[in-house]
Amino acid sequence: MRIETMGNPAAPAMLFIPGMLCTAESVRIFARHMKTEAFLILPTLSGHYAGAPDYISKEAEAEAILRWLKEHQVTRLALLHGTSMGAEVAMEVLRQAQGSIEVERCLFDGGPFFRFPWWFRRVMEGKFTQMARLMQYDSPEEALDAMAKIHVLSRIIGKNRQKYVPVLRTMMTEKRSISPVTVRNITETCYNYQLPVFDDAMQQRMFFLYSDDEPAHMAKKRLQRAYPGAAYKDVHGLGHCGWQMSDPEGYAAMLDAYVNT
After folding, report:
1. Residue 152 CB contacts under 8 Å (≥ 6 apart), including other chains
2. Using the 8-state DSSP alphabet, how is residue 88 labeled?
3. Exposure b/e, 2-23, CB count within 10 A at least 16 = b
4. Are 57 and 64 in contact (CB under 8 A)?
5. DSSP for 154-217?
6. 147 lies in a domain?
7. Is residue 70 part of a domain?
8. Percentage of the chain surpassing pLDDT 90?
9. Looking at the predicted structure, is the pLDDT value of residue 7 above 70?
10. I want to staple 33 with a disulfide (CB 3.0 to 4.6 A). Which of 64, 76, 114, 252 is the partner?
């Protein structure tokens, strides 16, 4: 795992975990617009950067993040934020942090908190293998065109494809070879997720955000059954994690309002 930081180390700490195949640069797209003074902690997950060890599990990533927080004497997070698969890693951080690190607020954006059978996971592993190859394209526009030809992924990116170009650009700043081990394990994280148990007090600190047209939105009913005390918000027609991509300044303003309420 690689961890970068932004801001004042003396300010309240906020942890942002990027999505599958993304790096910390994808978080900077919206985080740099936040007005709240903060110490931003930006990991890039294992298997997601050149020369990285394979991604093994959300549990291993959460352990590594919590170890870094302990080493840097971070005992309190004003915000724990996860995007897409990063939301699932963030929830595991929340589970493991209980009793050691205080987490004031959590925002899970577009998390695919599913538990599907093995055969579906193998199908999606094949699709994610195709997606991983996009890292080898010469331009984000070419990568986006190739992604749109993969039916399952075209459903994820939706009709307004151009908003994903800045994120794809960050994904292609360093040529990476995503290993088959990493692809299999990120598939397991996305589609074989057992929801942890949180008490009512912790649920009241949890906020789940979805666009109503993204496939991950189907996980919302499962989450509402498990966490009835959490907050939920749907935005309309923005696609998978599309708010932070199509309107990074507006998304940052929403985060500022959330952490300051």
Report:
1. 124, 127
2. H
3. eeeebbeeeebbbbbbbbbbbb
4. no
5. HHHH-S-GGGGHHHHHHHTSS-----HHHHHHHHHHHHBPPPPP--HHHHTTEEEEEETTSGGG
6. no
7. yes
8. 74
9. yes
10. 252
Residue type present at position 85: M
**Total domains in the fold of the chain:** 1
pLDDT reading at 55 higher than 90: yes
Instruction: Output the six-digit token pair for 166.
Output: 């800045």
Q: How far is residue 233's CA from residue 64's CA, in Å, rounded to a whole number?
A: 30
Per the CB < 8 A criterion, the answer to whether 4 and 24 are in contact is yes
Q: Is residue 155 part of a domain?
A: no
The CA-based dihedral angle spanning residues 201, 215, 192, 165, taken in that order and rounded to the nearest 10 degrees: -100
Query: What CATH code is carried by the domain that includes residue 59?
Result: 3.40.50.1820
What's the domain range around 37? 2-115+193-259
Query: Is 76 part of a structural domain of the chain?
Result: yes
